[in-house]
Amino acid sequence: MADALVSTILEQIITIARHQVEHEVKLVVGVEKEIEHLKNNFQAIRDVLEDAERKQLKDAAVKHWLNDLKDVSYDMDDVLDEWSTAVLKWEMEEAENALAPKSVVFSFLRSCCFCFRRAEQAENALAPKSVVSSFLCSFCCSFRRVARRHDIAHKIIEVGQKLEDIAKRKAMFGFELHKAIEKEPDRQTTSFVDVSRVHGREDEKKNVISKLLCDSSQEGRKVQVISIVGMGGLGKTTLAQLAYNADEIKTYFEKRIWVCVSHPFDENTVAKAIIEDLSGAAPNLVELEPLCKRISESIEGKKFLLVLDDVWEDNPRKWEPLKESLKCGAPGSRILVTTRKDTVAKMMESDYSLLLGKLTDEECWSVFSQVAFYGRSQDACEMFTEIGRQIVYRCKGLPLAAKTLGGLMQSKTTTEDWDNILSNELWEIEEVEKGIFPPLLLSYYDLPVAIRSCFTYCAMFPKDHVMERGKLIKMWMAQGYLKASPSKEMELVGKGYFEILATRAFFQDFQETDEDSIKFKMHDIVHDFAQFLMKDECFTVETDVLKRQKTESFYERARHAIMTVSNWARFPQSIYNARKLRSLLIRSFNDTAISNPLLELLRKLTYLRLFDLSASQIEEIPSDVGKLLHLRYLDFSYCKWLKELPETICDLYNLQSLDLTWCVAVKKLPQKMRKLIRLRHLEIFGSGVAFLPRGIEELTSLRTLTNFIVSGGGGQSGAANLGELGNLSHLRGTLWIEKLLNVRDVNEAVKAEIKKKKYLIGLYLLFNRDETDLRVDENALVEALQPPSNLQVLCISEFRGTLLPKWIMSLTKLRGLDISHCGSFEVLPPFGRLPYLEKLKIGVKTRKLDVGFLGLGPVNNGSEGISKKGENGEMAPVSAFPKLKELFIWKMEELEGWDGIGMGLGEKDTRTAIMPQLRELEVKGCPKLKALPDYVLTAPLVELRMNECPLLSERYEEEKGEDWHKISHISEIEINYQRSKRPPRKS
């Protein structure tokens, strides 16, 4: 952590030393000399930092020295950031003044007493006003700049003196030169190694499932408790997950609830988590008694399974109210507890306790080798097997240790590398969990310093917290952990770091959500390890009790905090003492609890680089937010009561990320957004923003712009037009362009140059409009909005033109296509030819779906389809929709026929395959459709839904419909919103 910070500061110092600024800086005596002195001191310290980082684990004096170094490094980083921000601000002000009318400039000068007197003197001399105002503006600004730089220079000198003292003290520790790892470890071709297979726990899994399903007919209404007990890293949570997700468990229990309890224990938090899992929404209740009553009402008479993961609290009085509320479940209900303490199992009055033992050496080897030897040749595996087994012996039967070391060894390519790990002195470290931390330390210190910082930053989040990759990368950027290069942007560097940490088993439980989003967690032991490394820098506030637990010196050193303000808690005043915080995440469920102290927070925590108020019930943001000059990341997402942003937001020159997702009450953005020239991510999806302010084209650093809303004119004279998108050539991810029918001139769409935005993954074109009389040629407009050829997701909605754009079939990388709420087209393009299309949604006004959209045979222009002749003249095998997995026919109210019945297309044919991978079909709102084509019904469907389709419902009605036999093999069928399940078909 310290090494990464020092490296960052060295880069900043060198940059400033080389930077040729205006002549006024020379008035600040000694700054350049002081910067050179700082650089030398930092370099001398950096040379021994790696050795100091390791020795601090055993030597408290070294740890104290490192803490002092971190404090000074942070201070220096802040001062240098203040310097560079001041330079940027002055440049921006000069640019604005150059564009401002002279009368405005002159009027501004009169507000300054000093300038006012000079102006009067100049006017008496009959000098031209334009010359006078220009001269005075320059004079006044120069004066302020010199004073400001003089102030910063003093700060640099002051911090430099502290650093010099630390540099002198390093001699007393006898540090050795130990070069830190700079090169990133080699990564395999896949992002994550598949480590989902569990080794050595089959018997335990069967045992736990058997106890959960055990007949309890003689037990009355008693809810049995089953406990899994064992030390950290043995796989207790994994075993509970295996049981929880087993098919027989899903079928047996009406309700399944999973709650991570962890430490410290809070009855209200656990109760709220149970209710939220049961109902899907957090309860608006404060006291424990009504919470317990809600739990009882939700599970009464129902057979439930409640998993309480990672329980530490063994005080029966704290558990009694919750236990009582769970007694009204139906016979057969179960509570499954995982814990490291056998006293918890006794306190919970467990009917059965499974003491989880360590893996055998062979089982441990299986876990290790699966990861360490992934992608290696047989010869390489044999070469490393002997050393590998010695390393596995040191894992002491702990699966987490084996998995972590497997990830570490995956990047080691020589026997010398493997020997170095086996003989490393870190094996001798024993902290917190004996046998667990040494493998984690080995993997941690084998990482480059920048990636170490990315990992330890995650210590700030609570246990079992679900993180999102894109959001975490933006947080890393805000802290300065990611450095761009000419060939790789910061976001891509962050993705690479994430993959390395995932491979090392520092992250787990991956879940892909949309196009480019991954959610994940940290194992609780890995989280403990991260907090062990960052225990002097991170803290969590839930109530004001922390004020009595931490010393004043702790708050002075704290840099990252997450604070939860519940309905029943006072605002924790202790947070004001942490004046050097760089990250603050606030979770508030009470408007008054956070709104009142927010102004004080902004005034005292002036070093914030990241401020997250997401999902808080605030209504306004104080204008003082504009004084947080270091701020890079600002998150107001899901603040549904927030009405507007202050114009001072535009003074945050360093801002990189602004998130207003689902801020439904925010109707407009600050007018001078163009000043945020370092903004890279602007997220306004689901917000009430009606238009983007003019000048958005100047934000050329933007990588994310979730929505562009075309203004309908009227009083929105400050709105950007569509053509301003043309300047934003670096946009990535998904872009929604809304209210396209407000476009006055098709040339604006041409200027937007969507086709040149080669990094876009998804494009949503919404042809809606404000209530105006504007008319535009929709066919020409959609043609002008051609996206890049590598687009993966396309949606065209509310389009009323007569032809879909010609460019659709050139998008050969499409995985998702949505043409819905659209008008009537004479023909549909041959979508079946799109080779990678996995999801298709069609919602157009047409009477017939012919086979043309399959792309087989002649199509509308008379050209040949995709059938091809082989060398012997016979037809070669062809496929329509070769990758399609999901098909939605949606709200096609005029659709009467869907060709394919009786045409031979549904029969087994060695030459033609139609939708060979189709798993899910939904037909909704098609009241005139009479039947489904045979080629669809013979596809390997797993799920079929037919809703608001009376003729289809009658034809395929269960047991009664004439064609019921054609769909009876499908596992899940929904007709008129009534679902039925069958055993999965055998492959």
UniProtKB/TrEMBL annotation:
<dbReference type="GO" id="GO:0098542">
    <property type="term" value="P:defense response to other organism"/>
</dbReference>
<keyword id="KW-0547">Nucleotide-binding</keyword>
<dbReference type="InterPro" id="IPR038005">
    <property type="entry name" value="RX-like_CC"/>
</dbReference>
<dbReference type="Pfam" id="PF18052">
    <property type="entry name" value="Rx_N"/>
</dbReference>
<protein>
    <recommendedName>
        <fullName>Disease resistance protein RGA3</fullName>
    </recommendedName>
</protein>
<keyword id="KW-0611">Plant defense</keyword>
<dbReference type="Pfam" id="PF25019">
    <property type="entry name" value="LRR_R13L1-DRL21"/>
</dbReference>
<dbReference type="Pfam" id="PF23559">
    <property type="entry name" value="WHD_DRP"/>
</dbReference>
<dbReference type="InterPro" id="IPR058922">
    <property type="entry name" value="WHD_DRP"/>
</dbReference>
<feature type="domain" description="Disease resistance protein winged helix">
    <location>
        <begin position="460"/>
        <end position="530"/>
    </location>
</feature>
<dbReference type="InterPro" id="IPR002182">
    <property type="entry name" value="NB-ARC"/>
</dbReference>
<dbReference type="Pfam" id="PF00931">
    <property type="entry name" value="NB-ARC"/>
</dbReference>
<keyword id="KW-0677">Repeat</keyword>
<feature type="domain" description="R13L1/DRL21-like LRR repeat region">
    <location>
        <begin position="722"/>
        <end position="842"/>
    </location>
</feature>
<dbReference type="InterPro" id="IPR027417">
    <property type="entry name" value="P-loop_NTPase"/>
</dbReference>
<keyword id="KW-0067">ATP-binding</keyword>
<dbReference type="InterPro" id="IPR032675">
    <property type="entry name" value="LRR_dom_sf"/>
</dbReference>
<dbReference type="InterPro" id="IPR041118">
    <property type="entry name" value="Rx_N"/>
</dbReference>
<feature type="domain" description="NB-ARC">
    <location>
        <begin position="202"/>
        <end position="375"/>
    </location>
</feature>
<dbReference type="GO" id="GO:0005524">
    <property type="term" value="F:ATP binding"/>
</dbReference>
<feature type="domain" description="Disease resistance N-terminal">
    <location>
        <begin position="6"/>
        <end position="92"/>
    </location>
</feature>
<dbReference type="InterPro" id="IPR056789">
    <property type="entry name" value="LRR_R13L1-DRL21"/>
</dbReference>
<keyword id="KW-0433">Leucine-rich repeat</keyword>
<dbReference type="InterPro" id="IPR042197">
    <property type="entry name" value="Apaf_helical"/>
</dbReference>
<dbReference type="InterPro" id="IPR036388">
    <property type="entry name" value="WH-like_DNA-bd_sf"/>
</dbReference>
<dbReference type="GO" id="GO:0043531">
    <property type="term" value="F:ADP binding"/>
</dbReference>
